[in-house]
Design goal:
Length: 620
């Protein structure tokens, strides 16, 4: 009887499974591919990505927020969203873009388009100090990984129009690269007719100099190029250290309907830039000062720039961890092209050229190419593992292909949902990638989440690459627009939890409520304000209509997580001050009346009591 009832329940289970499968995506996950021990692949996947309450992820992932202008921080493998770092756009959650300091950094622009996060490197490995990100509006920003805050925005850089190929970093963070996606006359103030595009419009490749001690960026030097649309870049490493590579489309120099005019040629180019030689030439005073930056013309400084033909309208260009191979992904074809760095150097030495573009030598394709790897349709970007494997995203095929460097054999494919752009491997851009995890950053997600209306999230999918076969283990959903991300070992990042009092040298900081108060100099009013649980001191600030008011807010807490805010009703003022920090906000008191201010961050049981009044006395 016992065994019979077992058979009955087994039959019921089978029927339930069949019904559930038939119900498609509405059904709970059905255990496919059971393993010998009775543990399904889904259970194995769930266990791999599961980070128990209170446990920490092994990696940080820094993902670009595209035209949200922000950077998103995730934990890997949980794919939990940990924080948002505002960079090129105001973010009221942290008061970014409202205080004087961050407002000055934004420089009047309220949006940016972040594409490529680039972690600082020492000896070709991520060193956990800074994160650089590009903005298409010709800017680059530095985020300090000590406090996850944007510390510098450089630009718009002169002469550059549309910086897409940033913020790729050299192996010792000497330079961050930029390149113009949209060629334009140089200097930018020349309004030349589009009919003269081919000869009078110019591309620019820029090397932004980074101070190795402070991370402070300065404009560095630039290289004048033909009017191609520069797309991506990557710095050489180890054997190819000193070089950087830039892909382009529109070597046709087309205008108008680019999808036709810029897709004529079978091959466009990847530019090889000898940046160490170029830096020497710039330091020696070669080239011309244009818009305040030294610009080198490669026709007049031979040896700094060469063109490698690459089919067809290449998008990503990625250098292998050993620096020997340069992978160029022609997005309009079914293969990705691998160039051999040594062969490139030999071809340059032997002057194995097939022509030139505006005086820049074009290298002979057959002499520098190692392989055309048949990865699949629409290859965009390539990442690497520790074991000689490469992973290429396929936009058209909506998949990732795994292939071997050297044998060029494609060994595995995993479908992505849907239309993958970039992909990011753990420590994937270093000289020693970790393997383990790969994240596909997809452009579409339709149908894989609860409906949120027409503005759908993008999707990021976690792939386990620790075995021979790649395994999709998790779907996460992200804010638009996930272009690139980088994944760094968590133990490389050393954060602070409060700003130490002894490091606060702000001239308007006050550390005692008895030093807080309002002072006046003509129509300029300075209010030194102390924020501490659960009072804003002073609780009344009195000014006259028309006064220029400078409020300096010091959060004198020295304990973790004790943030205070300063929201001023009707004045569009919203500041958040971290423990130990001082921020200022300056505004014209143009509206008469009484306006409440209050703490915006729930900080204690008496948080609601943390409030005060700005009294603006009307003009006589
Ligand atoms: S890009 Cu978006 S998928 Cu801006 Cu690096 Cu390739
Ligand atoms: Cu301080 Cu709420």
């Amino acid at each position: 009887m016992r065994s019979k009832s077992w058979i009955t329940s087994a039959a019921v289970f089978v029927i339930i499974v069949i019904i559930a499968s038939a119900a498609g995506r509405c059904a709970p996950s059905t255990p496919k591919g059971r393993k010998a021990g009775g543990v399904s692949d889904i259970a194995v996947a769930a266990q791999k990505t599961y980070v128990a309450p209170g446990d920490l992820d092994e990696y940080y992932m820094f993902a670009s927020g595209g035209h949200s202008g922000q950077v998103y921080v995730y934990g890997v493998p949980s794919m939990r969203h940990l924080s948002t770092i505002p960079v090129f756009a105001p973010y009221s959650a942290t008061g970014y873009g409202y205080d004087d300091e961050s407002k000055a950094m934004l420089g009047g622009l309220t949006w940016g388009d972040v594409h490529h996060p680039s972690l600082s490197e020492t000896g070709g490995d991520y060193d956990g100090r800074w994160l650089f990100v590009n903005d298409i509006n010709g800017r680059v920003a530095r985020i300090d990984l000590r406090d996850f805050k944007t510390k510098q925005i450089l630009g718009p850089i002169p002469n550059i129009s549309g910086n897409h190929a940033g913020a790729f970093i050299t192996p010792n963070s000497e330079y961050s690269f930029m390149a113009s996606r949209f060629s334009a006359p140089v200097p930018r103030t020349n309004a030349v007719s589009i009919d003269q595009y081919a000869s009078q419009y110019k591309g620019i490749i820029a090397a932004i100099a980074i101070d190795p001690k402070t991370g402070q960026m300065s404009p560095g030097f630039q290289i004048l190029t033909p009017p191609f649309d520069w797309d991506l870049s990557d710095a050489g490493k180890l054997v190819s250290d000193g070089w950087a590579f830039f892909s382009c489309y529109n070597s046709e120099r087309g205008t108008g309907k680019l999808e036709v005019t810029a897709s004529q040629r079978d091959r466009d180019y990847i530019a090889a830039i000898n940046w160490k030689e170029a830096a020497k030439a710039a330091a020696a005073g070669q080239g011309d000062m244009i818009g305040g930056v030294r610009v080198l013309d490669p026709k007049k400084v031979p040896g700094i720039m060469f063109l490698m033909p690459c089919g067809k309208s290449p998008h990503g260009v990625d250098v292998s961890p050993d620096g020997k191979y340069i992978v160029g992904s022609g997005k309009l074809q079914g293969v990705t092209t691998v160039f051999n760095f040594e062969k490139m150097i030999t071809a340059i030495r032997n002057k194995n050229f097939t022509g030139q573009e505006d005086g820049i030598p074009v290298l002979k394709y057959e002499a520098i190419k190692d392989a055309e790897v048949a990865v699949g349709l629409g290859p965009l970007h390539t990442q690497f593992g520790p074991d000689g494997y490469a992973y290429t995203s396929l936009f058209v095929d909506s998949a990732i292909a795994k292939w071997k460097l050297g044998t060029w054999e494609v060994v595995d494919k995993v479908p992505m949902s849907y239309s993958i752009g970039h992909l990011a491997a753990a420590e994937g851009d270093t000289v020693s990638p970790d393997g383990k995890w790969l994240v596909g950053l997809n452009k579409l997600s339709h149908g894989r989440h609860l409906s949120v209306g027409p503005s759908q999230p993008e999707s990021s999918q976690l792939v386990d690459i620790s075995d021979e076969k790649m395994k999709l283990v998790y779907d996460a959903f992200t804010e638009p627009e996930p272009h690139y991300a980088q994944i760094i070992k968590a133990d490389k990042i050393h954060t602070i939890e409060v700003y130490p009092k002894e490091e606060n040298h702000h001239p308007l900081a006050v550390w005692d409520v008895k030093d807080a108060g309002v002072t006046r100099n003509g129509t300029n009013v300075t209010a030194k304000v102390v924020l501490v649980r659960s009072t804003i001191t002073p609780s009344v600030i009195e000014v006259n209509q028309g006064d220029l008011v400078n409020v300096a807010l010091t959060n004198i807490e020295q304990s973790t997580d004790e943030l205070h805010g300063f929201g001023l009703i009707d004045y569009n003022i919203n500041i958040v001050v971290d423990p130990g920090e001082t921020k200022t906000v300056t505004f014209r008191a143009d509206k008469p009346g009484v306006f409440a201010y209050y703490c915006t961050n729930f900080c204690s049981a008496l948080h609601q009591e943390m409030q005060g009044y700005l009294i603006v006395k009307p003009r006589g």
